[in-house]
Amino acid sequence: MGIILVYDITDEKSFENIQNWMKSIKENASAGVERLLLGNKCDMEAKRKVQKEQADKLAREHGIRFFETSAKSSMNVDEAFSSLARDILLKSGGRRLKNNNKPPSTDLKTCDKKNTNKCSLA
User: Fold this and answer.
1) Quick one: pLDDT at residue 95?
2) Other Cβ atoms within 10 Å of 53 Cβ, number
3) How far is it, in rounded angstroms, from Cα 119 to Cα 111?
4) CA-to-CA distance for 81 and 87, rounded, in angstroms?
5) Is the pLDDT at 13 greater than 70, yes or no?
6) pLDDT, average across residues 37-62
């Protein structure tokens, strides 16, 4: 229901490959699958090869969300996953709404204080 496309901001080739993945998704994935573009390693600004504006433009061309993240520092990781989950729920909730007239629930909340990297639907 959702695909995350990740490139390395310090590697132009990884960014160029995103176009190939977009084409593959269009040809092989279910129609309407949610997609998200992530530029990883934003903690390595000094080694940046792909400008944020380039990725933002690509995301806008494909009508998808874009985040710059850092797996190392966890910057924007939770926000990106929550955004994708919310978009998937809104899309699937819209189908449910047509079927049974019940509004979808899209609230995300932390499961427990010890493990804040996981979330559950409210």
Assistant:
1) 55
2) 8
3) 5
4) 10
5) yes
6) 97
Count, in order, helices (H) and strands (E) of the chain: 3, 5
Query: Rounded to an integer, what distance in angstroms lies between the CA atom of residue 62 and that of residue 107?
Result: 26
100, amino acid identity: N
Task: Please report, for the chain, the start and end positions of each structural domain, with discontinuous segments joined by +.
Answer: 2-121
Residue of 64, 56, 22, 63 lying closest to 39 (CA atoms): 56
CATH 3.40.30.10 fits 2-121, yes or no: no
Question: DSSP string spanning 73-108?
Answer: T-TTHHHHHHHHHHHHHHHHHHHHHHHH-PPPP--E
Give the alpha-carbon dihedral of 22, 28, 30, 36, to 10 degrees: -20
Q: Which one-letter DSSP state was computed for residue 116?
A: T
- Amino acid identity of residue 96, one-letter, is R
